[in-house]
Amino acid sequence: MIVQLFVPCFVDQLFPDTAFNMIRVLEKAGCAVHYNPNQTCCGQPAFNAGFWQDAKEVCSKFIDDFSGNEIVVTPSASCAGFVRNYYQKIFENSSLHNVSRDMQKRVFEFSEFLIKVMRVEDFGAEFHAKVTYHDSCAALRDCGIKDEPRQLLSCVRGLELIEMDDNETCCGFGGTFAVKFTSISGGMAEQKLEHAIQTGAQYLISSDLSCLMHLDGFLRKRHMPLQTMHIADVISKFV
Fold it and tell me: Of 68, 87, 141, 172, which one has the fewest beta carbons inside 10 Å?
């Protein structure tokens, strides 16, 4: 299967290794991965900030960059959820209305794609560690993703998954929410990390690097004994 790879802005700039690890896993699953170097952003930051017209221009470029019939796979449930749930609103009654509806059906988050489309869960990965998992709001509420990442983690040799209390509660990032409401966002992050540390886990895993970036900042500042990892970085640990 040929798939298009969408690498979100912040992943491209801050976590490129995760994108490369995702390619390794997708290729092992039997996919031919295509990457369009002209790609930029899905448009979510501008849309959430209220700049809908600016967002529409970015979203139009996204549709153009990923034209065709191939499935688009991304390591971000946040970006996938935005395309699925808001593109139709953005392009309602426009010349891109039908094209945007088609795009909504072709965009998949990484773990969701592996389980639901490729139907592969065991990649022979090995990672000897205790981990806990954070369900991002975008994965749970925008994409309906809950079991897929856990199915992948359950097949990793040496990995022990320990569920934390309130694992479906927001971490406090929310994009610009973390900037506009710093104190609230910080309190939510600290509560999330306290629950994670109480499990005795060494690593906090998620499908959204935006959440992990937010939480990692608090971990470093508070010198907490926990590291963050995207699920693609875990699954790619195969020989």
Answer: 68
The residue from 116, 148, 180 where one domain ends is: 116
Nearest to 233 by CA among 196, 208, 200: 208
Prediction pTM value:
0.92
Domain count of the fold of the chain: 2
SS3 state of residue 44: helix
Closest CA to 70 of 44, 35, 97: 35
Buried b (16+ CB within 10 A) or exposed e, 9-35: ebbeeebeebbebbbbbbeebebebee
The torsion angles phi and psi of 237, rounded to 5 degrees, stand at -85, 60
Sign of the CA dihedral with 42 first, then 45, 49, and 54 last: negative
Same domain (yes/no): 15, 108: yes
Domain membership of residue 68 as a residue range: 2-116
Q: What's the mean per-residue pLDDT of the chain?
A: 94
Strand order across the beta sheet in which 203-206 lies: 157-161, 126-133, 203-206, 227-230
| Calpha distance 110→207 (Å, rounded) | 8
